[in-house]
Amino acid sequence: MRVVVLGGGVVGVTTAYQLQKDGHEVVVVERQPQVASETSWGNAGMVAPGHSFVWSSPKAPMILLKSLFQKDQALRFKLSADPRLYTWSWKFLMECTAEKAKRNTLLKHRLAAYSQSVLQQVVADEDIRYDRNTRGILYLHRSQEALDRGIAQMRLLESDGQEIRILDRAGVVALDPSLGAAADKIAGAIYCPTDETGDSALFTRGLAAKVAERGGELRTGTTIRSIRTDGDAIAGVETDKGEVRGDAYVLALGCHSAEAGRRIGIDLPIYPIKGYSLTIPVGNHPRPPTVASVDEHNLVAITSFGDRLRVTATAEFAGYDLRHKPSDFAFMKGVTQDLYPDGADYDRAEMWAGLRPMTPTNLPFFGRQRYGNLYLNTGHGHIGWTMSHGSARITADLIAGRIPAIPMDGLLAA
Ligand SMILES: Cc1cc2nc3c(=O)[nH]c(=O)nc-3n(C[C@H](O)[C@H](O)[C@H](O)COP(=O)(O)OP(=O)(O)OC[C@H]3O[C@@H](n4cnc5c(N)ncnc54)[C@H](O)[C@@H]3O)c2cc1C
After folding, report:
1. Which residue ranges does the record assign to the FAD dependent oxidoreductase domain (predicted)?
2. Ligand 1 center to residue 166 CA distance, Å?
3. Residue 7 CB–ligand 1 contact under 6 Å
4. Measured between alpha carbons, how far is 144 from 129 in angstroms, rounded to an integer?
5. What is the pLDDT of residues 50-61, one digit of tens each?
6. Which of 75, 106, 211, 252 could be disulfide-bonded to 216 (CB atoms 3.0-4.6 Å)?
7. Sheet of strand 224-230, all strands in order from the earlier edge strand to the far edge
């Protein structure tokens, strides 16, 4: 078949790769001059099944409410005139019971762990340089009480096969001596040795080059204006450079899938949740992190990509507004500098903001809705780089009429 993939982020490109592997002709339509230029560009790079906890948890309603009145650094919920914010928030709140949070977290963990295994296969098959680091991720806690709570919570993922190790302060510093200067600020960590990191933009661009070498079409710099339907099928995609047609289509437009879906009668509750990141050259600094970490108290993620650090933070409801200013980054920079004082050339940090395509369940949409030849692979939220590889394989399997390698109950709309 000729399959048209709408969107050239990590989700679209991994999907094109898996489809091509199955023998299909693939076309990727992407508005930016290069693939992985939007959300898939500046993320923290964590391939982290150990980070599968959903945001729609029993604690979330109070956190959202408080953020209306307090200037919180991690979460910024703002009222707006956008009615979709309220319909989405209502659906999100409906997922916040303990039972649903547990169910959604386990589904997400299933997908994330499977996805990591697919990534490992791709890495074995293809030579792609993306500053991969397989030394695990440290989930740092600043007090013993917080560490104990974190351990109790992590048992859920452990029950689903996640390997965890509990480290005290000395154990953390032994694993990553670059945290030595901040040892007195850390009580300990939950260490997930099988989690890994890597630059998702480098990976996506490397993979896209492989797809192109094998005859796949990358139509970058091409904006999709509308999707043309004919009864219960998609007939073509209208772009600023003419129509693109295929036998099947995959919707992988990240945050923009909601609008594209709406225009053809598919309701996809995907809302943009803005995050910020810094990319900081290590320069001559001798102590960059050697193991990625998440400061669970401040909700700041820190990853080392070879000669750069990537630091991310913040969940902000700001619609599709990608603007940012230096003060948005001051807190996360301060936290990083505090943990790794000699880790990077902090004065040369590059600022970026991106939009997480969040769904109320925190799970992506798969499969078909309404149209026989349109497949969804979208809404990957805060760990879309982690879940993309498995999601791509699942989508290719569904298109081939094969049963995916993991049970799809709960992941596929009935
Ligand atoms: C601050 C931050 C930190 C994160 N950290 C992590 C992490 O550590 N680990 C992890 O797993 N995930 C992380 N994520 C999440 C991850 O980055 C996303 O889930 C993932 O990148 C989503 O990929 P995507 O392909 O769905 O979306 P995108 O990368 O946004 O791709 C969608 C593509 O569609 C294109 N497009 C949109 N409209 C049109 C149109 N009309 N015509 C043509 N093309 C169009 C866009 O240009 C874009 O390239 C983070 C996200 C943020 C914001």
Report:
1. 2-398
2. 32
3. yes
4. 39
5. 999 999 999 999
6. 211
7. 224-230, 233-239, 242-244
Q: 236 alpha carbon to ligand 1 midpoint, in Å? A: 24
Q: Which of 253, 324, 352 has most ligand 1 atoms within 8 Å of CB, for mutation?
A: 253
The alpha carbon dihedral of 364, 80, 30, 241 has a sign of positive
CA distance 171 to 89: 40
* Residue 110 Cα to chain centre, angstroms: 15
pTM to 2 decimal places: 0.98
Q: How far apart are CA 17 and CA 9, in angstroms?
A: 12
Is 392 near ligand 1, meaning CB less than 6 Å away?
no
Q: Which is it for strands 25-29 and 217-219: parallel, antiparallel or unpaired?
A: parallel
**Could you tell me if the CB of 253 is within 6 A of ligand 1?**
yes
Nearest-angstrom CA–CA distance, 152 and 234: 48
Q: Out of 385, 387, 395, give the residue to mutate to test ligand 1, the one with the largest number of ligand atoms within 8 Å of its CB.
A: 385
**Beta strand 248-251 with 374-378: parallel, antiparallel or unpaired?**
parallel
Give the separation between CA 361 and CA 369, rounded to whole angstroms: 18
Per residue in 215-239, pLDDT (tens digit) is: 999 999 999 999 999 999 999 999 9
Cα 382-383-384 angle, rounded to 5 deg = 105
Pairing type for strands 2-6 and 25-29 reads parallel
- Residue 384 CA to ligand 1 center (angstroms) comes to 7
Q: 356 CB less than 6 Å from ligand 1? A: yes
| CA 277/CA 345 separation, integer angstroms | 15
In the predicted model, what is the mean pLDDT of residues 135-147?
98
Q: Looking at the CA of residue 197, tell me the nearest atom of ligand 1.
A: 8
Regarding the beta carbon of 386 and ligand 1, being less than 6 Å apart is answered yes
Q: Which atom of ligand 1 is nearest to the CA of 44?
A: 8
- State residue 337 phi and psi, 5-degree precision: -65, -35
